[in-house]
């Protein structure tokens, strides 16, 4: 059965190779966009309780001090929503800003109409970053 599966996979055009993935240390990431995702991932990890603030101050600051400062800044700005069901929404807005999928005017326009307090938190977190954006601040 295993031989048949390998043969079928080979006919389809793939090669049966074993692939393993390993997390990349923040200091090894070369592209700014990857580093932005890394920062957003650290903040999401804090929000989900998967990592501790001490992980940021000890581990991340040793690997990438600039990213650690940005993570700490964003996490601090989100403090009013920690433990709130609105925290995931705030993170989504911040991630949209970081990815360039939405502009700050989307936040100050649309989000302000929907939830003014959340808009202030998102913009506070965003304003903790350099005005040129996440990518440039991490280079």
Task: Describe the structure concisely for a colleague.
The protein has 139 residues and is mainly alpha-helical.
Structure description:
With 139 residues, the chain is mainly α. The protein has one domain (27-138). It has helices spanning 2-12, 32-48, 53-63, 65-77, 87-99, 104-114, 116-127, 134-138. Helix 2 crosses helix 4.
In total, how many domains does the architecture comprise? Answer: 1
Decide which structural class fits the backbone: mainly alpha
Shape: globular
Report mean pLDDT, rounded to a whole number. 74
Number of helices: 8
Largest sheet descriptor: none
* Helical fraction: 55-70%
**Compute the gyration radius: what is it?**
19 Å
Gap between N and C termini: 51 Å
Order of helices and strands: HHHHHHHH
Ranges where pLDDT stays below 50 over 5 or more residues in a row are: 8-32
Task: Give the strand content.
Answer: under 5%
